[in-house]
Design goal:
Structural class: mainly alpha
Protein name: FHF complex subunit HOOK interacting protein 2A
Organism: Canis lupus dingo (dingo)
Radius of gyration: 36 Å
Shape: elongated
InterPro entries: FHIP, FHIP_C, FHIP_KELAA_motif
Number of helices: 33
Family: Belongs to the FHIP family.
Strand content: under 5%
Number of strands: 2
Length: about 750
């Protein structure tokens, strides 16, 4: 105890006896005395049971030593004192095990010291400031309720001791004798005079000495350094405000530490803190304004491949050297900075307390998605559309926070859930524009937009599929209802829905060889057979019928895969099984029905419209013989993704060839049937069709070198994609049936 008081008196005597306040603190014994005091406190705690406060700690708390140190640090007298005070606070809070922050004589000076942090960027004390702020954040993370001590009233002010006047601490700024701009400081005699007001009492009343010293220091007029350019609407949550300032530090390590501190604070479960965080600080503005400025700093044109392939971005590792990068491209530095900050926003929202997360995500939606990205996506410049869509695609892939994903989905698709009509497909302008871009005159824009939708469909958000497809299939009004009659029993037993037409009897398929079909027995050996107790009158057709229908769609003379090794149907089965498991895992919590809605309960009279998204996909599928190979691959990829979803209405509409379509309706199968009909006519006009088709397939697989241009190359490539797509759909249908039939 005596040693502790001795070291503290040695520090206070310095201010009374010094005549040179310009000498740096490192030339004095103050740092050594502070270290000794800290060592004594640590030793004292080790010698006592946990939770028992020793006399030295009692002395520190009772005599408001931290308040006095704060005032000395604020005055930065002698020069460097602020740094010493920050280090002392940091070590005290970090190493002492017993909870100190609940004490008013700890959290009050800590709160004041927090306000000194981040006032000026790139100061010599920046490292100590961020270390201090982060230790406070860590303590709050351990005991979240303590955050309430750091939520100040908006107009809270400090009253000078001994005077009835209430003077805001901010009002002291500008009435100062310390100024870094001029390099001038208080005169030594002024400081020692202020310290010496209680000189006569120091000898006789040591406890009073400290209080009086604190009083005299509180009365000092202390200047503030020029503030960083962050507008603080109020001072409710100074810990956040100081960290926000330090996120702008030119030192990347300081900025990252500040971001980490904010990450800790937003995750605190205290509702009052969450409300204050989003309503009384600039956090939302910081996130969104920086996103906007980094987005606007990107070049007008960036190669979509560069946007897609730039390495995965982690916000804490945003370090990039153009000179060391062999794969550099114009704008890469700016792109990495944008994606890195987006990753930080995503992770922050992911970690945030629920109400804070919603507020932050909505701010990103309103201030960045709508305010900055939407005008870029709605523009008419093809280069601008391509770049902005590629960026949207990238952040769709990158987002991991459910709350931010929800806002992104509402931004892209809108919140509508009622069935679409042709008259209102432009109700959400951005959704309408993006879907139209799937059928853009520019193949690049079409492919990029389709890829964006393909990745969007893989996100764990129920609204995506419902908005794009399911809301239009809810009533099953694409079907024509025919009740099952007793005389239809033989048809049901053959695995067909009553009234359906067997495709093998369709005029389009009269040339199909029986050798190309898989026998009923082959499929039934791996599929549960229908039983009298469970006839297939629930909208599900026997799987072998479905598989054969898809496999036999393309006529023999238009098939080429059986001439090339390794292009069989079994590969699709393996892929479909893996992908279907993934989709089932995503959709598990959406509680979809296991069977279609009963037709008796459906509104079959309502006019059916497949929806804007499927309309565009079906239109493009109908032109598969006349579109570039890359476009066809992307269109069929999106359709196969849709087919994988384990919803009975999607399965029925996209994968059941035997569904009774209502008049004027089309399904995926009917679209393909029309394409095949067109193909069979066009084949007759192309000499040596089969050899040319085989050559094109081998070139696509890299089995043949590129040679002379082949006539009708677009159609030949389209036929190959069509054949592969039908095999893929057959595999998906089989896997879905087999999985749903297995307990």
């Amino acid at each position: 105890m005596k040693d502790f008081v001795y070291h503290w008196k040695a520090i206070t005597h310095y201010y009374i006896e010094t005549s040179d306040d310009k000498a740096p603190v490192t030339d004095t014994n103050i740092p050594s005395h502070l270290d000794q005091m800290l060592g004594i406190l640590l030793q004292e705690e080790r010698e006592r049971e946990f939770g028992v406060t020793g006399p030295c700690m009692e002395y520190l708390l009772h005599h408001k030593i931290l308040e006095t140190l704060y005032t000395l640090g604020k005055a930065d007298c002698p020069p460097g004192m602020k740094q010493q005070v920050l280090v002392f606070y940091t070590k005290l809070l970090g190493r002492i095990q017993q909870p100190l922050l609940p004490h008013i004589n700890v959290h009050r000076p800590v709160q004041k010291l927090i306000r000194l942090c981040g006032e000026v960027l790139a100061t010599p004390t920046e490292n100590e400031e961020i270390q201090f702020l982060c230790i406070v954040c860590a303590k709050l993370k351990q005991n979240p309720y303590l955050v309430n001590f750091f939520l100040e009233n908006k107009l809270k002010s400090l009253a000078s001791k001994g005077t009835p006047d209430v003077i805001s601490e901010d009002s002291l700024k500008g009435q100062d004798c310390l100024s870094t701009d001029t390099g001038q400081s208080c005169q030594p005699e002024e400081l020692s005079g202020a310290m010496g007001l209680e000189h006569t009492e120091l000898e006789d009343e040591p406890p009073q000495q400290i209080d009086d010293l604190s009083t005299s220091l509180d009365n000092l007029a202390v200047t503030s350094l020029p503030e960083a350019t962050v507008v603080r609407p109020n001072q409710d949550y100074n810990l956040v405000n100081s960290l926000l300032n330090l996120t702008r530090s030119p030192d990347g390590r300081i900025a990252v530490k500040a971001c980490e501190g904010l990450m800790l604070l937003v995750s605190l479960p205290e509702p009052a803190a969450a409300k204050c965080l989003t309503q009384s600080t600039c956090l939302c503005e910081l996130l969104t304004d920086r996103l906007a400025s980094l987005y606007k700093a990107l070049p007008q044109s960036v190669d979509p491949l560069d946007i897609e392939t730039v390495e995965a971005i982690n916000w804490g590792l945003d370090s990039y050297s153009h000179k060391e990068d062999a794969s550099a491209f114009p704008g890469k530095r700016a792109l990495i900075s944008f994606l890195s900050w987006f990753d930080y926003c995503d992770q922050l929202i992911k970690e945030a307390q629920k109400t804070a997360a919603v507020a932050l995500a909505r701010a990103v939606h309103e201030r960045f998605f709508i305010g900055v990205m939407e005008p870029q996506l709605m523009q008419t410049s093809e280069m601008g559309i391509l770049t902005s869509t590629a960026l949207l695609h990238r952040i769709v892939r990158q987002v991991t926070s459910d709350v931010l994903l929800q806002e992104m989905v509402f931004f892209i698709l809108g919140e509508q859930r009622e069935p679409e009509t042709l008259a209102d497909i432009s109700r959400h302008p951005l959704r309408h524009r993006l879907i139209e871009h799937c059928d853009h005159i520019s193949d690049e824009i079409s492919i990029m937009t389709l890829r964006m939708f393909e990745h969007l469909l893989q996100k764990p958000n129920e609204h995506i599929l419902y908005n794009l497809v399911l809301r239009n299939l809810e009533e099953r009004n694409y079907t024509e209802y025919k009740p099952v009659c007793p005389e239809d029993k033989d048809v049901v037993e053959n695995g067909l829905i009553a009234g359906a037409v067997d495709l093998e009897e369709d005029p389009l398929f009269t040339d199909i060889s029986p050798d190309n079909t898989l026998s009923n027995q082959e499929w039934l050996s791996s599929s549960p057979p229908a039983t009298p107790e469970h006839p297939k009158n629930d909208g599900k057709t026997e799987v072998h019928k479905i598989v054969n229908s898809f496999l036999c769609l393309v006529p023999d003379e238009a098939k080429s895969s059986y001439h090339v090794e390794g292009t069989g149907y079994d590969t699709y089965l393996r892929d479909a099984h893996r992908q279907f498991q993934d989709y089932c895992a995503i959709c598990l919590r959406w509680e979809w029905p296991g069977s279609p809605k009963a037709l008796e309960k459906c509104n079959l009279e309502a006019t059916f419209f497949e929806g804007h998204f499927l309309k565009v996909l079906f239109d493009r599928m109908g032109r598969i013989l006349d579109q570039p190979y890359d476009v066809n691959l992307q269109v069929t990829s999106v359709l196969s993704r849709l087919s994988l979803f384990p919803h009975p209405h999607i399965h029925e509409y996209l994968l059941d060839p035997y569904v009774n379509l209502a008049s004027g309706c089309r399904s995926l199968f009917s679209v393909i049937v029309r394409v095949v009909g067109d193909l069979m006519v066009r084949i007759q006009r192309i000499p040596d069709f089969t050899p040319k088709l085989l050559l094109v397939r081998k070139r696509l697989l890299g089995l043949e070198p590129e040679g002379p241009i082949i006539d009708h190359i677009t159609l030949l490539e389209g036929v190959i994609v069509l054949e592969e797509f039908c095999k893929e759909l057959a595999a998906i249908a089989f896997v879905k049936y087999h999985t749903s039939s297995t307990p």
